[in-house]
Amino acid sequence: MSGALSPTFEPIAARPAPVRTDGLAAWVRGNLFNDWKTSAATLLIGGLLLWYLPQLLHWALLRAVWVPSADACRAAGAGACWGVVAEKYRLIIFGRYPFDEQWRPLVATLLMVGLLVASCSRAFWRPWLALLWVVVLAAFFALMYGNVLGLTKVETDRWGGLPLTILLASLSIVMAFPIALVVALGRRSDLPAIRSFCTLYVELVRGVPLISVLFMASFMFPLFMPQNVSIDVLIRVLVGITLFAGAYMAEVIRGGLQAIPKGQIEAAATLGLSYWQTQRMIVLPQALAMVVPGIMNNFISIFKDTSLVTIVSLYELTGALGLALNSDADWRPFKIEGYLFIALIYFGFCFAMSRYSLWVEKQVNKGKLR
User: Fold this and answer.
1) Is residue 294 in a domain?
2) Of all helices (H) and strands (E), which one includes residue 92?
3) Contact assessment for residue 55 and residue 71, using Cβ atoms and an 8 Å cutoff
4) Could you tell me the pTM of the whole model?
5) Mean pLDDT per 10-residue run, the chain (370 residues)?
6) 287 belongs to a structural domain
């Protein structure tokens, strides 16, 4: 054994340092220059932006006209005419609401937006939040409609602009969610009558466009009402949007319900939990957490679909813009700037909802990250 070769030490070759997966450089490398196709697309789009962005900035800012003068806008020619917004913003925001009373829809809108922000904050998730909704909605309608506390009466057909958009979207979302929840559970019911009724409702509503629903609610529904009985057009439109949104949202929730393993429901039955206890404590919390993106996507669609109520002579934000420009030939050529203004408003609300959806997703998925 003394003649055996002694083992020799062979060092392992140095390995490359690990690549950083966080920070700006890592994000750029992973998202913009991950492979040659991504790099080519990044360079192409970047080149187009470098070409068109300076022209856009010159049109939108450097050569733009900000004063509310149609003559100055026509004289400028090459720049945007933001003067149309400065001249018509009150008609765009508040529609045909009486000019001297527009402080009322302003206060009502601020109250409603504040209520929505509070409802999205965990600090306000208390039993008295429902009472706060009742109080704010009562104040909203009292301010908008008037005829109380010395306020002049303003009919609902003169409501418009941003207050009407927020009202229709908020109430439709709030009322459509419980309807969708019940319908989604009904479609999975073991009772044939309930399951058939819920399926019929969903298929009928999803089989027609929202414009048809609004048209029927506004023009055809009154034909079936008794004489001397009339329901306000705002209420009919609100019900139509709510039923339409509820059908689509029910399918989103049903997808989440189907993703729950059947074993969990059987385990709950073994523990002696009733049907509603199982749904409330086990099934619905998991199902709703799974479909948060789909539900928020439906909320955003409702907010944007309120622009269709113009066909029934309710001038929300988009309709109020058309009313403001079509009634004044001097400002009619500058529709692009007006539509960009309301597009910015829509983007602000929709972007806020999408950011809130991401926050909710992180909250409900904290348990899975442990």
Assistant:
1) yes
2) helix 83-94
3) no
4) 0.82
5) 63 73 74 81 88 85 83 79 86 88 92 90 86 92 88 87 91 91 89 90 89 82 74 86 91 89 85 84 86 88 88 84 82 86 91 89 70
6) yes
